[in-house]
Structure formats: C-alpha cells, structure tokens
Amino acid sequence: MNIFRLTGDLSHLAAIIILLLKIWKSRSCAGISGKSQILFALVFTTRYLDLFTSFISLYNTCMKLIYIGCAYATVYLIYAKFRATYDGNHDSFRVEFLVVPVGGLSVLINHDFSPLEILWTFSIYLESVAILPQLFMISKTGEAETITTHYLFCLGLYRALYLFNWIWRFYFEGFFDMIAIVAGVVQTVLYCDFFYLYVTKVLKGKKLSLPA
Amino acid sequence: GTDSNLKDEL
C-alpha cells in the first residue's frame, strides 16, 4: 500500500458515494447513465469473485463489499426507486458494442485461461470503457450538473492515481501487470477531455455545458 | 519484474 494506491481507492470511494448521495438527496437520477452504472456493477461482480476464494486483508474485503453494495444500490435507485426520473431517451449508447468486444478480448488476452482469471481480465477491460455511456449522454444533452462533474472527476482521478501506484510498485517492488496498465492508461485517457472542461469551467464556478 | 495479477488491488 502506497500513498497513490490509498488516495486512488479513497477517490474511487468518494465518486461512488457522491453519486449515491446526489441521487438520494435530489430524489432524481436525471443526467445519470443507468447503462454505465450497470456496467460498473458488472465490473465489480466479475472482479471480486475472489471474495469467495481468497482472503487478502480486512481493508480489501471491506472495500470490495462496499463497492459492490453501492454499485447495486445505485442501479436499484436508477431502475426501480427513481425510475420515473431516469432519462432513458438520452442514455442511448449501445452497450453490446462494448461488452461483446471486451468479452472476446478477455478470452484472447489474459494471464491464464481459467474462468476466474478470464472474468478478472474481463472486468479490467470493461472498467476501462464503462464510463463511455455516461460521457456519450453528456455529449448528447450538451450539459452536466455540477455534482455529476464532481463524480466524474473523482472517478477519473482514481485510475490516474492507480497509474502512479503502478509506477511506484514497479520501482520499489519490481512488480507490474501489463493488462491492468494498458487498460488503466486507456481508462485515464478517456477522461482527459473531461478533465480539461472540469478545470477550465467547473472549477471556475461555471456549469459544464458544451457548445451546441 | 514479474507479470502477475494485482490481486491485492481493488
């Protein structure tokens, strides 16, 4: 555990909680892509199956349970409790264009051809692109609520911090994982355009709106 | 370096 890893985890946790609280407090999931949230629930489910097979630490187990629990709670709020506020017409990204290629890639490029290992790889690849339906939705409506941009910033920052964590681990532990690194770079790059808008607009007190 | 899984990460 190094400082980048810990702050990355906390940034990820902050993102998840911000989104849950935003929906709960406003009693609305307007502007939130339910499809991205289903993909994140799928990511956590396929990655954390090792909860049943191995124990790493109390921290590890607790965080996994919190992430999974929050992911399913978010999906429940969007598709059940506050379904009337869900903006399905603008959430029109075709997720099969992500899930099918990612599934194929995880079968082809993995560390070990075993069910758990393929599912872990699938979760890493899927996480890298799971935010696309949300970014697509924002580009379609041309705007995002400020609280939604805080969520996206924390979510993007998390993987960027993990990149520094992996650099740290390579130098101090001689340890790297090419699958995670390549997927993590892709994931972080997808946020770059958003990071730019966040710094130039939201942090200066303006609402995030895209030119028509 | 070793190319192995980051199973201790989240």
Written account of the structure:
The complex is a heterodimer of chains A (212) and B (10). With 212 residues, chain A is mainly α. Chain A has one domain (1-199). In chain A, 71% of the residues lie in helices and 3% in strands. Chain A has 8 helices and 3 strands. Chain B is elongated and about 20 Å long. The mean pLDDT of chain B is 68. Chain A: Pfam families: ER_lumen_recept.
Would you list the SSEs of chain B in sequence order as H and E? E
Work out the strand percent of chain A.
under 5%
Mean pLDDT rating of chain B: 68
Report the principal-axis shape of chain A: globular
- Beta-strand content bin of chain B: 15-25%
Structural class of chain A: mainly alpha
Radius of gyration of chain B: 7 Å
Could you tell me the radius of gyration of chain A in angstroms? 17 Å
Biggest β-sheet strands, sense, barrel of chain A: 2 strands, antiparallel
Tally of helical runs of chain A: 8
Count of DSSP-assigned helices of chain B: 0
Low-confidence stretches of chain A: none
Task: Specify the overall morphology of chain B.
Answer: elongated
